[in-house]
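Researcher: We plan to redesign the surface later, but first we want a full-length starting point. Tokens attached.
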């Protein structure tokens, strides 16, 4: 058993290294003068350009709850802000929200338009969803310019008693979570990070550390720092999330390592490289000010050095160090009373502009602390009873603030509590979004202002690096280079004109855009010398059919040009592992002791770990929907314009036909004549005498309910179509004059619909492009009035959802709502942003009784 000397985090571990006399410079902001050092001026200029021109955007998604039943609606509100100021973003207006399943596949997409600080939306889950954890992902295209985009993700759980299929990996994992008697404990991993990035000989070093098991979960463990001969020099203990801080003074010429004990097992770990000479950057937060210490073991090492501090890219501290005393130290006291809350990034540069040390510090300014006050007219509320919720935003001095918030009232469930505690808008904006989303339970650090939480938060800062940019790339112009994705202000229609014989040869031409539908919009533009053209931004709902065509003097010139339209979808790379190491200025920590797990071999030579248990065979029984059922579902969703067609053809009903064109299937019907060959076919409806209704007219073509051109319909292949409806005579009168020559309604197979799709022919490109999603309205019954529908059961678990609540900073906003028939404890959750860029969050609870319960005022 190893010798242990537990220490309380932050007392004996954190040294009071400012006991010496230092220079008091108490100004909250200090800016250096330009012109003294070109390299330093470049650093300052880059940061200012970043914060004003190239700064990031941040997105947060608030959902009405985290636990749903299959078939329920996920109600959500997105908040899109400037990543530096946290105020309304002036860059993007287009927000993408995806629902991903357990296989990391996008199953539902939403494109929203943000007119203010964000946009609300909803996702109707399918009753066939397999039970399990799903993910909501939100981003703008502008965010995708980063190598590691700050994409927001959150988990939601969808339950389904009829779809209980489990992932075998999850089953095996749950079985292995219970340790068997005599089973070897999980391997542990420990990483140590010197404050500032360097570990120096002969001076006191502060190291943040984290200890995790093989699943990545932080664990509590005891440890010590030892000399190479095994003599202990310092002791430590990890706390919540495996975080901790240890300090010791290494002697010149000696080597050290760390030893950690957990479950009676001992592991040894290498420490970062020990330098004989170098630099250190120590920062300690003392309430309303920071104590900053920069030091070097090199003679005149700090002379002409440059110290910079910024908050999310906004520079608030700059200091050129001219001279230092014999102690080779520079000290500074920085007042934080006028700074915003958040992660501050300090970096020490040498006179050549090379980064020497860096340190993250969380700025906690009590003057910037705001809270949402939630007041309720009743605490215990009866069945189908009315209650009122009052909201306002105040600071510690009771001053009111204006902003936008969202409120949800939902039934509490033990299953959602762990997920609920992971993060909120405050912890995401102030902490997790700047650390790459690597903190699983970020809200823990803000639950109270105890000294323990503050010291634990500082340990978190020591073990994480700045995720927005790397100085080397930042100063090499890679951050401010031309960006692939421009901020979207609306829907853009882009493309390229090329030679019809060579798609890699640009062709300069005039192109005309025409929107097809009730209103016709036409616009003509000249492509650039690369054949590129852009139309927009546009704002429209649902799916829009249209056409882009070249403007030429004759048809022969058109045949020499081909148009390629760009998809509006952006490919989002799979999010990187959340186990992100801190960027340091020395070699990474490595595990000294390596252990090989025993392996079992299967009959096919496949190796599995000794802890994996072989499962019995599991058979899942079900019935596949028939073709008729699938088609009926399509008809209900997309044929609402008419009740019954004149004729209908199911493409899969004629497998013996080997045809390429979808229109060839219409040859089977009397009175329908197909002229030409794919892809230049035309369709004519013939009368009783064999004459066409209009020799110069084509029938009206629809694709998934939207009007399209005849060329678009002719370009469809058979394997892209599920069924085709024919409407003629009286059946087509619903379409008026447009249906005088008949209607051909084509319906694509699943997966084709509601996506960007195009069909090219010489000089013409038809398209269907989805518009912005139109959000549904949340239904909330009013039981104060008589309504026959009130006789139905009210089993809502979300009593109220209000995505857009505007607070003007002058008075409290009151919202009235009714309970339902489901008794129990409900949570009132309110999140949002002030117009000054401060995130706010709060929760409250109410109790709803059954039918016999009386209200308590």
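Model: Full-length starting sequence:
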């Amino acid at each position: 058993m190893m010798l242990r000397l537990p220490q309380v985090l932050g007392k004996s571990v954190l040294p009071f290294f400012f006991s010496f006399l230092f220079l008091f410079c108490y100004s909250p902001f200090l800016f250096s003068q330009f012109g003294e050092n070109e390299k330093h001026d470049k650093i300052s200029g880059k940061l200012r350009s970043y914060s004003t021109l190239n700064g990031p955007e941040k997105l947060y998604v608030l959902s009405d709850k985290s636990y749903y039943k299959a078939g329920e609606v996920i109600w959500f509100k997105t908040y899109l802000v400037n990543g530096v100021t946290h105020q309304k973003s002036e860059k993007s207006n287009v927000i993408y929200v995806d629902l991903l399943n357990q296989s990391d596949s996008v199953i539902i997409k939403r494109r929203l338009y943000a007119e203010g600080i964000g946009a609300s939306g909803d996702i109707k889950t399918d009753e066939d969803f397999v039970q399990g954890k799903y993910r909501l992902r939100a981003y703008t295209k502008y965010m995708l310019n980063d190598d590691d985009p700050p994409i927001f993700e959150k988990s939601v759980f969808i339950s389904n008693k009829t779809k209980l299929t489990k992932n075998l990996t999850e089953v095996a994992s749950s079985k292995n979570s219970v340790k068997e008697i005599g089973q070897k404990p999980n391997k542990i991993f420990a990483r140590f990070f010197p404050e500032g990035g360097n570990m120096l000989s002969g001076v006191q070093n502060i190291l943040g550390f984290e200890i995790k098991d093989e699943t990545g979960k932080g664990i509590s463990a005891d440890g010590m720092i030892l000399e190479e001969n095994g003599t202990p020099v310092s002791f430590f203990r990890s706390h919540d999330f495996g975080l901790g801080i240890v300090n010791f003074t290494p002697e010149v010429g000696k080597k050290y390592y760390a030893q950690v004990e957990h479950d009676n097992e001992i592991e040894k770990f290498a420490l970062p490289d020990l330098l004989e000479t170098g630099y250190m950057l120590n920062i300690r937060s003392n309430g309303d000010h920071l104590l900053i210490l920069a030091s070097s073991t090199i003679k005149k090492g700090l002379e002409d050095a440059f110290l910079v501090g910024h908050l999310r890219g906004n520079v608030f501290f700059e200091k050129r160090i001219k001279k230092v005393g014999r102690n080779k130290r520079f000290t500074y006291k920085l007042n934080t009373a006028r700074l915003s809350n958040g992660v501050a990034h300090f970096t020490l540069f040498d006179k050549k502009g090379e980064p020497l040390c860096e340190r993250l510090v969380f700025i906690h300014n009590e003057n910037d602390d705001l809270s949402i006050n939630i007041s309720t007219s009743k605490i215990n509320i009866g069945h189908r009873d009315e209650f009122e919720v009052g909201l306002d935003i105040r600071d510690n001095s009771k001053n009111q603030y204006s902003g936008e918030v969202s409120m949800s009232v939902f039934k509490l469930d033990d299953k959602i509590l762990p997920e609920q505690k992971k993060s909120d808008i405050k912890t995401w904006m102030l902490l997790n979004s700047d650390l790459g989303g690597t903190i699983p339970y970020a809200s823990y650090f803000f639950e109270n202002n105890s000294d323990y939480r503050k010291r634990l938060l500082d340990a978190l800062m020591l073990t994480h690096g700045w995720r927005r940019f790397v100085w080397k790339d930042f100063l090499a112009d890679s951050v401010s280079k031309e960006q692939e994705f421009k901020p979207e202000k609306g829907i853009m229609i882009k493309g390229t004109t090329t030679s019809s014989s060579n798609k890699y040869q640009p062709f300069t031409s005039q192109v005309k855009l025409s929107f097809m539908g009730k209103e016709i919009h036409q616009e003509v533009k000249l492509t650039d010398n690369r054949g590129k053209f852009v139309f927009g931004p546009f704002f429209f709902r649902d799916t829009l059919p249209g056409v882009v065509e070249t403007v030429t003097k004759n048809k022969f010139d058109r045949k020499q040009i081909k148009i390629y339209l760009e998809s509006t979808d952006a490919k989002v790379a799979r999010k990187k592992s959340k186990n992100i190491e801190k960027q340091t200025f020395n070699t990474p920590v490595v595990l000294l002791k390596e252990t090989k797990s025993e392996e079992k071999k299967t009959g096919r030579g496949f190796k599995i770990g000794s802890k994996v248990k072989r499962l019995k065979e599991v058979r899942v029984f079900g019935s596949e929907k028939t073709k008729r059922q699938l088609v009926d579902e399509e008809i209900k969703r997309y044929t609402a314009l008419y009740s019954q067609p004149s004729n209908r053809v199911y493409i899969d009903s004629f497998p013996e036909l080997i045809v390429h064109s979808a229109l060839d299937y219409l040859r089977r019907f009397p009175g329908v004549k197909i002229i030409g060959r794919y892809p230049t076919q035309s369709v004519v409806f013939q009368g009783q005498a064999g004459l066409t209704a209009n020799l110069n007219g084509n029938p009206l073509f629809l694709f998934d309910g939207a009007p399209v051109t005849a060329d678009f319909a002719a370009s469809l292949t058979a394997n892209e179509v599920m069924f085709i409806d024919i409407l003629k005579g009286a059946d087509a009168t619903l379409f008026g004059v447009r249906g005088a020559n008949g209607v051909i309604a084509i319906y694509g197979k699943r997966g084709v619909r509601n996506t960007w799709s195009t069909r090219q022919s010489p000089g013409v490109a038809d398209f269907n492009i989805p518009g912005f999603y139109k959000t549904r309205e949340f239904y909330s019954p009013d039981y104060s009035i008589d309504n026959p529908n009130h006789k139905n059961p009210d089993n809502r678990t979300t009593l109220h959802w209000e995505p857009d609540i505007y607070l003007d900073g002058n008075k409290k906003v009151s919202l009235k709502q009714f309970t339902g028939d489901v008794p129990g404890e409900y949570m009132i959750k309110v999140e949002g942003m002030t117009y000054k860029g401060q995130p706010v969050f709060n929760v409250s609870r109410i109790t709803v009784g059954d039918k016999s319960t009386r209200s308590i005022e």
